[in-house]
Design goal:
The complex is a heterodimer of chains A (151) and B (103). Chain A is mostly helical and 151 residues long. Chain A is 71% helix and 0% strand. Chain A has seven helices and no strands. In chain A, helix 1 packs antiparallel against helix 2, helix 1 packs parallel to helix 3 and helix 3 packs antiparallel against helix 5. The radius of gyration of chain A is 16 Å and the shape is globular. The chains are: A mainly alpha (151), B mainly alpha (103).
Chain lengths: 151, 103
């Protein structure tokens, strides 16, 4: 979950690993303050999301996928269009950091808007509106790309 | 590539599937939770080096002052010897003059 979030957010293998390690080190220091496995999970999502947003804002990272940075296929290999998936990953990387975090928590972690709001410390209405706007942006950009290719 | 009719939710779930961390990730995290002797002692060593440096400044200063005084004493001694030589020469000269006048 932690490394996956960092990787899908930053698209930089070494930065994602470093960030994930830092999150676990922070967890190691805070473990006694966390009350249950659910609390740990919530804490990990919250801290990882915030660190990803901070890192992205700090370094103004754009998605970079080098040939050596493409991860090995995971056990849950998708049967869907790989080109569409790659386009979606690239377009998600162009979203503003907080919107990107919301999309990742919604579709990678399968969280409800209320859970995303709690993890990011923003109102549920903000999560819903940013998610709605991000999906519209992604859909629009994909359709434009499709039309460009076919015209 | 025709994206006019697709289930965006399902495609996003597929595109954003979880990625496994690199091999030995857990081992690397564990290694960082147990810092090496050098990492643990680094702070103490830095403090010790600072104390040694702070102590060496007055010692060095005292050493410098001693050497400075020794050099000044050496100069004064050389000056005195020179002055005594001049005085001795003048005395000899005066003695010679006295002897000549007494003769």
């Amino acid at each position: 979950m932690v490394f996956g979030l960092a990787w899908n957010f930053l698209r930089d293998w070494s930065t994602a690993e470093e960030l994930a390690q830092d999150v676990f080190l922070h967890l190691h220091q805070k473990i006694e303050e966390l009350e249950s496995p659910e609390h740990v999970k919530f804490w990990l999502r919250r801290v990882t999301s915030h660190r990803c947003i901070d890192e992205s804002r700090r370094r103004k990272l754009r998605p970079r996928i080098g040939i050596y940075e493409v991860p090995e296929p995971s056990s849950r290999q998708s049967t869907r269009d790989p080109m569409l998936a790659a386009n979606l990953q690239r377009l998600i990387g162009t979203l503003p950091p907080r919107s990107r975090a919301i999309v990742l928590l919604r579709y990678q972690e399968d969280l409800e808007p209320s859970e995303i709001a709690a993890a990011l410390g923003v109102p549920v209405s903000t999560v819903k509106s940013q998610l709605h706007r991000s999906l519209a942006v992604l859909r629009g950009k994909l359709q434009r790309k499709s039309q460009e290719v076919h015209s | 590539m025709k994206y006019d009719d697709f289930d965006l939710d399902a495609e996003l779930r597929s595109a954003l599937r979880r990625v496994d961390p690199p091999p030995n990730f857990a081992a690397r995290v564990l290694a960082r939770t147990h810092p090496s002797w050098w990492e643990r002692s680094r702070g103490l060593l830095a403090i010790a080096a600072g104390i040694i440096l702070l102590m060496s400044i007055p010692i060095g200063l005292a050493e410098y002052q001693i050497r400075q005084r020794q050099a000044e004493a050496q100069n004064a001694k050389s000056g005195l010897v020179q002055a005594l030589r001049i005085t001795s020469a003048k005395l000899r000269h005066t003695q010679k003059l006295l002897r000549k006048t007494s003769l």
